[in-house]
Write a structure and sequence with these properties.
The complex is a heterodimer. Chain A has twelve helices and 13 strands. By secondary structure, chain A is an alpha/beta fold. The longest helix of chain A is centred in the C-terminal third of the chain and has 22 residues. By secondary structure, chain B is of the alpha/beta class. Chain B has three domains: 259 residues, no CATH class; 214 residues, von Willebrand factor, type A domain (Rossmann fold, 3-Layer(aba) Sandwich), CATH 3.40.50; 33 residues, no CATH class. In chain B, the strands form five sheets. In chain B, strands 12-11-10-14-15-16 form a six-stranded mixed β-sheet, with helices on both faces. Chain B has a three-stranded mixed β-sheet with strand order 3-5-4, with helices on both faces. Chain B has a three-stranded antiparallel β-sheet with strand order 7-9-8, with no helix packed on it. In chain B, strand 1 and strand 2 form a beta hairpin. The longest helix of chain B has 30 residues. Classes of the chains: A alpha/beta, B alpha/beta. Chains A and B meet through strand 7, helix 9 and helix 12 of A and helix 2, helix 6, helix 14 and helix 16 of B.
């Protein structure tokens, strides 16, 4: 629970843990560092739209930025189940038991008091929510709480609004044009080899990822090969062994893709495990002796 | 691996196309009385009726397709070649376990028995071997390929390539070695004279040293030390080459090997028996191997492989440079030596297959293959003309698609609001306009994700359909477009004297072009029904629908009706749409049939084929109305079931 300077309780928004800022590997977009872009956007009151593949680091970029700059952060996860009242506020029974009092939702809190607002998977945001945000995203920079007597809240000067989305993937949809126009800065987040070299750090797995992505590009595979998935692969291999890591990774693919992908993973297994210094299936034959290779 | 002679690339094409169903032409002419029904029926030489044969063949074909699809996907990932194909053929022509032309790998299905661990590891090995050819073998059009053919040195080339390509593959992917070892061990065990395999074995250094030495000893015993040393020298020099950089060295080494085993046209009796163990597989013609630079890097890495160091000539064993201490002289009983080697091989295979982690890998692969739902259609592709759909068809397709999208959207998770119980909506209770307690609550509806559809459309394009084909093709296109708009799959087959594939379930119909099929021939939907049944068996989509559009009675009606019954029993909704110029006649027959007229009933049954839904229409547009109703009710009925 955090408290504002004016003593209000901001139970729904807080500064992310410091590790998110520390561990994030920055990327350069046309020669400009991603967080430098976010700094400038906040200063100028610009909204930022990040487009990129699943697990390419969109969310962690924003969360890490809030952590590094010591800003409050709230992530709106778009799904059909969210209701405006959850984000903007609602009337709740008064603690005194007499009548009702208004309680700000997380978005309202962050608009009032500043911070980083991330609209996650914005192309999935239900219209009943996105339309309320229109006035916040354009030159007006305000929201109106019709349920709270039409209160108008002007955005805090230190408010940064970022939206992220996958585009062109199975199950995604185009972003409404009116919404799209409200983001002055658009950043593309492709899978970045320089970043993957750092966060994955396993050349053999990255070779496999390249091979899988080549098949994804020609629509032979429908499952995107995310950086996040590769990081999980390595984490699982270190924690539970290479076999578990492969099984877990393969289970992330469509059912009909799994058998072929498993065989491809098995083909790379020795190389991936060797780089990690892990044991691989070994019969008494020299070629499977990792120590000798 | 020993491979058969393929005279031209057409052979690979034929092998690719051949299907287990080709044997449908087998003679079903043995008359037998069915003990249960007391009816006469005709069986083939294996005692199977045509119907039983199709049911059996359908299961096998699904499994072979599944195996091919799994290896194809893996190989495409590994090679990056999106057109690489892997097919399991049941062709009786094929005698060898596998072949490749550089772009298609053909695995002999006749070698595939029960899909157990032994079989999976053998399949893995076979696939990796062919993959090594695809990745590293020079092509027929290369300088070396042409030289080999001109100098009639195909046998020598093939013999030498084995060690080189597998050295490169096991260096790039060491995991492949254990599968190749299991495959090679099995090949050796199936060989009459193991010692004759020395030329191909000595370069396979992933094989255990004692086995290689035992085979070398046997070869020395049979053919002498000098020959063994020359073979060893050639093989081990050749396997370190990178192409195309080392083409000249390769020519020299192939020339030396040809001197030993003779040219391809050297008559039998004038060349050593051991030189003919490999066969005369043609140089791959298609695709491209890895570049010289990539091969060179792998060869540099291969030098550090510990198994390579074991072949140091000074060490003196492992490759036949001199006999091992076990060698007991030329009077040794050869049969005992063969048995000794076989025992070593069997022990080694047992050790590999009993390793817990390898067993687990094999089990996972087996499960994945058995659970795989990729099915490639074996029907020949129908040659079609792309034509532009009429404006009304485009409109109808859009409308149909939108309606289906809406229905599916209605199945999405959502809040059902204004209900008498559930989660209290406080804001609504505060709204003075809402007074009823019956409207104060909302309930989260988890929706229904079982809206996916697998559909097959069978179009009659027999001669009598002339004049109707444009409309019928347009209807199939509308159905496909509509169902695809909700991510469903639709295969379209046509049938006349035989069946062909118009659309594969994986391909999407173009928005501005449809495939037009000409009408001609008789009316035999049998093969199309067999393929439709296979597709429906393989799919895991919950809603399965088959539409058959036809204008007459069928040949093989009894067998076709049996397939329709099996499909219905397995949950497929089958609709037969009967096209007729006028409906008066059929309506009269239907009226009489309802009144119990046996002749009329027989006639109607000859048209409806036991389908769930039978509709006679005079105007093709009525087909669409029916399809529309069936698809929508299928999705919504499913929702009710789930709810």
């Amino acid at each position: 629970m955090s408290t504002t300077a004016d003593g209000l309780t901001l139970s729904l928004i807080s500064v992310p843990e410091a590790k998110w800022g520390r561990e994030y590997v920055n990327r350069k977009i046309d020669g400009v560092l991603d967080w430098d872009i976010l700094d400038k956007a906040m200063l100028d009151g610009d909204n930022v739209l990040i487009e990129g593949g699943a697990g390419s680091g969109k969310t962690i970029c924003v969360q890490g930025y809030a952590s590094a700059r010591n800003l409050r952060y709230f992530n709106v996860s778009s799904n059909n189940g969210i209701e405006p009242s959850q984000l903007f506020g609602r009337w709740i029974p008064s603690p005194s038991g007499q009548g009702y009092v208004w309680q700000d939702g997380a978005v309202t809190q962050i608009v009032r008091h500043g911070g980083v607002l991330l609209l996650n998977e914005v192309n999935f945001m239900p219209t009943r929510v996105s339309t309320v945000l229109f006035s916040l995203l354009d030159y007006r920079r305000e929201i109106q709480l019709l349920d709270n007597g039409g209160e108008v809240i002007k955005a805090h000067p230190n408010l940064l609004i970022v939206a992220d989305m996958n585009n062109g993937y199975r199950g995604t949809q185009q972003l409404n044009q009116a919404f799209n126009d409200r983001f002055g800065i658009k950043m593309d987040f492709p899978y970045d080899r320089a970043i993957e070299n750092v966060v994955v750090g396993n050349k053999a797995l990255l070779v496999l990822a390249d091979q899988l992505r080549a098949q994804y590009d020609v629509e032979e595979i429908a499952t995107p090969i995310s950086t996040r998935g590769l990081v999980s692969f390595i984490a699982n291999a270190k924690r539970f062994g290479i076999d578990f890591a492969i099984t877990s990774y393969v289970n992330g693919f469509d059912k009909e893709e799994r058998a072929g992908v498993r065989l491809a993973c098995e083909t790379h297994k020795f190389n991936i495990a060797s780089e990690l210094g892990l044991a691989v299936p070994r019969i008494e034959t020299e070629i499977f002796n990792v120590e000798n290779v | 691996m020993r491979t058969r002679k393929i005279k031209n690339p057409t052979s690979i094409k034929n092998l690719k196309r051949s299907s287990i169903f080709d044997n449908l032409n087998d003679d079903f002419s043995v008359p037998t009385i069915n003990a249960e029904t007391g009816q006469w029926e005709y069986l083939n030489q294996d005692g199977l009726s045509r119907e039983d044969y199709v049911a059996l063949a359908s299961d096998e074909a699904n499994q072979y397709d599944s195996i091919g699809a799994v290896y194809q996907r893996a190989d495409r990932i590994i090679t990056g070649q999106t057109e690489l194909g892997v097919t399991v053929t049941m062709s009786k022509e094929m005698k060898e376990p596998s072949v490749t032309d550089g772009k298609d790998i053909i695995i002999n299905g006749n070698f595939i028995g029960e899909l157990n661990d032994d079989m999976i590891i053998a399949l893995n090995g076979i696939n990796y071997h062919e993959l090594a050819h695809v990745l590293f073998s020079p092509r027929a059009g290369s300088g070396l390929g042409r030289w080999v053919m001109d100098n009639k040195s195909l046998k020598a080339f093939n013999l030498l390539e084995e060690g080189r390509i597998e050295r490169l593959l096991t260096t790039q992917y060491p995991t492949t070695a254990i599968n190749l070892e299991a495959m090679t061990s099995q090949v050796l065990l199936d060989t009459d004279k193991i010692g004759d395999q020395f030329p191909t074995l000595t370069g396979r250094t992933y094989m255990p040293l004692d086995i290689r030495q035992a085979v070398a000893d046997k070869f020395i015993a049979d053919y002498g030390l000098a020959v063994a040393q020359e073979v060893h020298s050639i093989v081990h020099a050749y396997r370190t080459l990178s192409f195309p950089d080392d083409f000249d060295k390769a020519k020299e080494l192939i020339g030396r090997m040809t001197n030993l085993i003779g040219q391809d046209d050297t008559p039998e009796g004038q060349k050593p028996v051991w030189g003919d163990v490999h066969g005369d597989r043609p140089v791959p013609e298609r695709g491209r191997p890895k570049s010289g630079k990539e091969q060179g890097k792998l060869q540099d890495r291969a030098q550090d492989n510990p198994t390579e160091k074991l072949d140091n000539p000074e060490f003196g064993t492992g490759a036949g440079t001199k006999p091992s201490a076990d060698y007991e002289g030329e009077d040794r009983k050869l049969s005992e030596a063969e048995a000794t080697i076989a025992k070593k091989l069997e022990d080694r295979l047992t050790a590999i297959k009993s390793d817990k982690r390898i067993k687990r890998d094999l089990s996972e692969t087996r499960k994945a293959i058995l659970g795989n739902t990729d099915v490639s259609v074996k029907l020949p592709i129908q040659k079609c003309d792309d034509i532009t759909p009429s404006p009304s068809a485009i409109n109808y397709a859009r409308k149909f698609g939108r309606e289906l999208e809406r229905i599916v959207r209605d199945q999405d998770p959502r809040w059902d609001t204004h209900l008498p119980s559930g989660r209290l909506n406080i804001q609504r209770t505060m709204n003075p306009d809402v007074n009823s307690i019956n409207e104060a609550f909302d309930v989260w509806n988890t929706g229904n994700d079982n809206t996916e559809i697998e559909a097959c459309v069978l179009l009659d394009n027999s001669g009598s359909m002339w004049g109707l084909m444009r409309t019928v093709c347009e209807q199939a296109w509308i159905i496909k477009r509509g169902i695809e708009s909700i991510n469903g799959s639709v295969s379209v087959y046509n049938f006349s004297s035989d069946s062909k594939q118009v659309y594969h379930s994986d391909e999407r119909a173009k928005p501005n072009a449809l495939r037009f099929v000409q009408a001609n021939g008789w009316t035999n939907p049998y093969r199309g029904l067999v393929e439709a049944e296979r597709v429906m068996k393989a799919t895991d989509k919950p809603n399965k629908i088959m539409f058959i559009v036809t204008d007459g009675q069928w040949e093989n009606a009894t067998e076709c009706n049996a397939i329709i019954k099996r499909m219905k029993d397995s949950g497929v909704i089958v609709a037969v749409v009967y096209l007729s110029n006028g409906l008066e006649g059929i309506q009269e027959y239907m009226r009489l049939a309802k009144q119990g007229d046996e002749q009329a009933r027989t006639f109607i049954n000859s048209l409806n084929h036991g389908a769930d839904i039978f509709k006679a229409v005079s105007e093709p547009k009525h087909t669409l109305e029916l399809a529309n109703d069936i698809v929508k009710s299928t999705i919504t009925n499913n929702r009710k079931r789930v709810a």
